[in-house]
From TrEMBL:
Reported function: Transcription elongation factor implicated in the maintenance of proper chromatin structure in actively transcribed regions.
Segments for region (Disordered): 79-108
Localization, UniProt: Nucleus
Biological source species: Agaricus bisporus var. burnettii
Protein name in the entry: Transcription elongation factor 1 homolog
Lineage, uppermost ranks: Eukaryota, Fungi, Dikarya, Basidiomycota, Agaricomycotina
UniProt KW Transcription keyword: yes
CC terms in the record's Gene Ontology section: transcription elongation factor complex
Keyword annotations from UniProtKB, A to Z: Metal-binding, Nucleus, Transcription, Transcription regulation, Zinc, Zinc-finger
Length: 108
């Protein structure tokens, strides 16, 4: 038997891992890159905090969870809360009860 010929094909280039975002835009104050996600995989908890308006969100994590996943959960939770509690009209600033208009029967 003879020797195998070496392949003339070039090896495939190594895939570069593109880093995912770790800072995001706040849903409430709309500041860019003000929301950070800190994940404690040992405790299984992630904390999301906006450093401008101090909005906070906490979620459970596992070994596959990334910061973008926590941000997406926060968006979903905010949408669900908004659908659940519709905005109400503000109450009148006066604490007095408004009187019903008085009708005089003498003017007839």
């Amino acid at each position: 038997m003879g020797k195998r010929k070496k392949s003339s094909r070039k090896p495939a280039p190594a895939r570069q891992k593109i880093p995912l975002d770790t800072t995001f835009t706040c849903l409430f104050c709309h500041h860019e890159k003000s929301v950070t996600v800190r994940m404690d995989r040992k405790e299984g908890v992630a904390n999301l905090v906006c450093r401008v308006c101090d909005q906070r969100y906490q979620s459970k994590v596992n070994h596959l969870t990334e910061p973008i996943d926590i941000y997406s959960e926060w968006i979903d939770a905010a949408d669900a809360a908004q659908r659940e509690d519709p905005p109400r009209r503000p109450a009148a600033s006066s604490s007095r009860v408004a009187r019903a208009p008085a009708y005089d029967s003498d003017d007839e």
